[in-house]
Design goal:
The complex is a heterodimer of chains A (107) and B (401). Chain A has 107 residues and is α/β, with parallel strands linked by helices. Chain A is built from 1 helix and 6 strands. By secondary structure, chain B is an all-alpha fold. Chain B is globular, with a radius of gyration of 20 Å. The chains are: A alpha/beta (107), B mainly alpha (401). At the A-B interface, helix 1 of A face helix 10, helix 15 and helix 17 of B.
Chain lengths: 107, 401
């Protein structure tokens, strides 16, 4: 097979693959949000931000992010770390918050 | 004390295995260790697990040049070693290529000790200023690397953007160990396919270490280049060995093939070791293994740091001799092995590993990444532009507006 043909095949697979992955990610991913006002009860969401404060209670922890979103989790975190969260929106004392299902340290 | 020493040697053993096996990265072992830490912590302390992770990291750093040079199957840290390493391999000097990287690693370890006080006392003071300019530093670094491309700047930009979008889509998908299919596809499998399509016969390898001479002059240039570029990787997200090596070699002027291998060894070791020092000084985890240490050590004390530095030194000493020994075995056996069949076997092995750990969606990433990696090879651009897969997401993360 000539190099030009191989290059064409690779381009086709690469572009088709990237578009398929983008399509799949838009279909399977929880909605990406960046503000408290975007929270909707019972919705699966993703967000990221810097940990402003982390308060640990007996069974869970409460994270306050720099975008104003409050997250509850069963985790150990340090202030000032940047994290990415996936979870479900729940309500506590008339305030919406994310119940974290997955927390990832970004940097 | 028994458990600490046992962890040190088990870490070296684990790092030797992960270093030699293509596609099995230390991050995978660290993730497994964290997932099962509840079990391990019933009979040992977090510090013992940290010692295991640190010694595994250092050992992996020394060993992972062997498969990159002899098999053309690198991980993301040793990808640049393929070209100069492979050239020497085709001249019967594969063993010499490994020795050059090993000397580089030893220099890198010495630099870690020298730079540790700077990282502990000075970096925290300047980091806050750097953080706000991170976005611009990342943009500038990438533009610089694209404009330094010798073949075609447009092709370099194309490869950067393709891999960047691939990285963005991959990292937004719920794939386990998402970096595994992404990086093995971009770097390892694409190299292996190239090796399979070429009819290569390896010449007899020279394994007499007494005939391998490294002058002080050859060590000086890469050392300066590494000192100027490697510390950047300690706090710049997504900046890896490849980019640091190019930036460093550009600063000091033309670097010869042998010097470049030494440079890669120094930078690789420095990034691995300094990631733990950065974790102590900035509380930022720059690598997968540093994330694991961060999760294990709730309170990172100065005493912990001293223990980690000691572990780095001891594991480097043993890893150097293990790597020398294994490189000799590789060099002796390689000429008797059918290189094409071996590449096919490794490719199958990597594919199976990706399927097991990342599932079918991960496999789709792997195929796409392999094609993207092949595009870079076929266009003849530097493969460091493929690190756009991590750079572009990092740039977007630090977007100031």
């Amino acid at each position: 097979m000539s190099q030009t043909n191989l290059l064409k095949i690779c381009f086709s697979i690469s572009i088709l693959g990237i578009f398929s992955l983008l399509l799949i990610s838009s279909l399977v991913q929880p909605k990406l949000i960046s503000r408290y006002s975007e929270l909707r009860l019972d919705e699966s969401v993703r967000t990221s931000g810097k940990v402003i404060s982390f308060n640990e209670f007996q069974d869970f922890g409460v994270i306050r992010l720099d975008n104003g979103i409050i997250v509850t989790c069963n985790c150990q975190l340090k202030e000032n770390s940047t994290i990415r969260i996936t979870g479900k929106v729940t309500e506590y004392k008339n305030q919406l918050q994310i119940q974290a299902e997955e927390i990832e340290n970004v940097f | 004390m028994f458990f600490e020493i046992l962890a040190l040697f088990l870490g070296i053993l684990a790092g030797t295995i992960t270093g030699l096996l293509p596609a099995i990265h230390i991050n995978l072992v660290s993730a497994f260790l964290i997932a099962s830490s509840a079990f391990f912590l019933t009979f040992t302390s977090p510090l013992v697990l940290v010692i295991f992770i640190v010694s595994m990291t250092i050992s992996h750093t020394f060993l992972d040049f062997i498969p990159s040079i002899f098999l053309g199957a690198p991980d993301e840290d040793s990808v640049l070693a393929i070209l100069p390493g492979h050239e020497l391999l085709l001249k019967g000097k594969g063993y010499e290529a490994v020795i050059l990287t090993l000397y580089g690693c030893i220099i890198g370890i010495i630099f870690i000790l020298i730079l540790s006080p700077v990282f502990v006392f000075i970096l925290p003071k300047i980091y806050n200023y750097l953080k706000f300019t991170m976005f611009f530093i990342l943009i500038f670094t990438n533009l610089y690397l694209i404009f330094k491309e010798k073949t075609s700047k447009l092709n370099a930009l194309l490869v950067f953007l393709l891999s960047g979008f691939l990285g963005l889509s991959t990292l937004s998908l719920p794939i386990k160990e998402s970096l595994l299919p992404l990086l093995t596809g971009l770097f390892a499998s694409s190299s292996l396919i190239t090796s399979i399509t070429k009819k290569q016969k390896l010449p007899k390898q020279l394994v007499n270490s007494r005939r391998i001479k490294i002058s002080k002059k050859e060590l000086l240039k890469p050392s300066i280049a590494a000192l100027l570029s490697a510390p950047l990787c300690a706090f710049l997200p997504a900046l890896g060995t490849g980019q640091a090596a190019i930036i460093g070699s550009d600063i000091v002027g033309e670097v010869k093939r042998r010097e470049f291998l030494i440079l890669l060894g120094i930078i690789n070791a420095m990034i691995a070791g300094l990631s733990f020092i950065t974790l102590y000084s900035l509380d930022k985890a720059r690598t997968g293994t540093a994330v694991a240490v961060q999760k294990l050590l709730e309170n990172f004390t100065p005493n912990n740091l001293l223990i980690i530095l000691a572990v780095i030194l001891i594991s480097a000493f043993f890893s150097f001799y293990i790597a020398l020994f294994l490189a000799k075995i590789f060099a002796n056996k390689m000429t008797n092995v059918n290189y094409k069949n071996l590449s096919v076997l490794i490719l199958i092995f990597i594919s199976v590993v990706v399927l097991i750990f990342s599932g079918f969606l991960g496999f789709l990433v792997f195929i796409t990444a392999t094609s993207t990696g092949l595009i870079a090879i076929l266009l003849g651009v530097r493969r460091t532009h493929l690190m756009g897969s991590l750079m572009l997401p990092a740039i977007l993360l630090y977007l100031p507006f």
